[in-house]
Amino acid sequence: MTQTVKDAATKAMRALAAVGPGIFAIGYTIGTGSVTSMAKAGADYGLGLLWVLALSCLFSGVLMSAYGRFAAVTGETALHGMVRFMPCGRVVAALVFIGVVVGQYTCLGGIMILTSGAIKEAFGLSCGVFPIACAIMDAMYALLMVGRYSFFEKILAFFVFLMALTFVVSVFATWPDAATLKRAIRPLAPSGGASLLMLAAFVGTTMAAPTFVTRPLLVREKGWGSGDLKTERRDSAVSASLMFAVSGSVMAVAAGALFAHGRGLEKILDIAATLEPVAGRFAVSFFMVGVLAAGLSSVFPIMMVAPLLIGDWKDGRMETNTPLFRVICLVAALWGLVVPLLGSNPVTVTVAVQVSNVFVLPLAVAAILFLVNRRSVMGEHCAGWVMNALLAAALAFAVATAAAGAKALLDRGEKGGADYFERGEIKSCEKHARGDERLEKAFAFLKRADLPSLAVGRHEIDGDKVFALVQECELKPVSDMKIEAHRRYIDIQAPLTAAEAYGVGRLSDANAALPFDVEKDIGFYKQPMDVVVVNPGEFIMFRPPYGAHGPSCSVDGPRRIKKLVIKVLVEP
Questions:
Q1: What is the pLDDT of residues 525-545, one digit of tens each?
Q2: ∠ CA 512-516-517 to the nearest 5 degrees?
Q3: Other Cβ atoms within 10 Å of 477 Cβ, number
Q4: Average pLDDT of the residues of the chain
Q5: Cα(380)–Cα(128) distance, integer angstroms
Q6: 184 Cα distance to chain centroid
Q7: Cα dihedral angle (99, 33, 330, 316), rounded to 10 degrees?
Q8: Which partner for 293 in 20, 163, 482, 555 could form a disulfide, CB atoms 3.0-4.6 Å apart?
Q9: pTM
Q10: What is the spatial distance between Cα 72 and Cα 59, in angstroms, rounded to a whole number?
């Protein structure tokens, strides 16, 4: 039996290694950034955004094939080809280079803090995340110094095999029951706020521009020509299919482990903590191996992206043994340590930086659409109507996603970028005060051990500046949600006896349903809402004037609960 498993693993590794450039595509697209985005989506929305993932993977396969076709037919690489064959080609190539490198370097910091944090928590290490990040970077840089593309492929094949195996197997350990699955799989149409940000993060990590822009360089390294177009298409299709299978598995694991139990995702080990009672400690370790493999498979190609693109621009060659390659990889390694050094919430950082990838995407799509339709360059291998239709759809999708990402980032709130709502665990709520004296008093009250036994009614904290309301209410269906917002008071809400669903969104004054009641500091509105679930032991905070919310909604049917609302005055 053991030999059979070993033989199967060897065959799988060989098959992955045979994919070639597709391995680098998976390395760029499925790392801890992708794992975090998929896990966050699965925890908050179940499988409602699976259709977005499917579209992203479809268009990724089309774009990989288009860039690979260009390279196989012309022998040119992406940036070099843009300079030679496009009007204002140098400008286009420069913008693509800057967009790709900035986006990938931004992602590298998020990947490092998440991977280092996972290692720290998984092994119970007492040191901070920065020393762990340094150790990871040292190891990755040492591997890069080997300087052979065939060696890089083998390393990535190993990481991708581990990643795919662990995430797919973990799905079966967390498969939800039929009722939860039916609720989880309903398609969600992102309408604003958190879901728009998640859509942009999805596309930013799955339709990652470096996946396509570096592909011609890798196709040339494999020696593929116009006689290998069938092989190139198969490589693209297998790569895109693996992206969907692995990313979809992560989303399904989070849906089964967190969404099914009404829990959110604050850190990636939230999934592991839920896996343990369901599938045992081995399942937790197994899942964490996948997370670490995902992180390492991304660090490797991201550190290479800038020197690869410089070689592409100069003469269309991959040069991995030069001093320039080593120096630029070292710069990337040092840059990747900045976020672990400064520290931040890894889930928030990682989802946010994935959004940065979407802004160069429309330009990368438009460039290849132009190049594969130049008959003087492509000859008889110009794109046909099917490829053109798919590329046009990919361009429209990329533009729409970039616009959604820009809107989501702008909508993340006022006052130095603070969100219009925040959510967290009561045991660590004080960090959300950020030096605000009134919030510090509110969170000190929130951490009282006797909250469930407090009498219904008002409880004084600091006069009218900070006070608490203990309430009992009947939870209503989400369809009956009443959306409200305030102008003078921050709302901190915490269910005490059962989970409570909230609608969350950024306030649009144009959607006011009734005139604002200044005396009661409340207004009611009509607008789309994302839904999040808050459990006992957690809180959610809404900041005026944009923190619209729909409280007191049911998770699993009508019930009466006891909850706490703390009002914090924001005026002098």
A1: 887 777 888 989 999 999 887
A2: 150
A3: 11
A4: 77
A5: 58
A6: 19
A7: -50
A8: 163
A9: 0.65
A10: 20
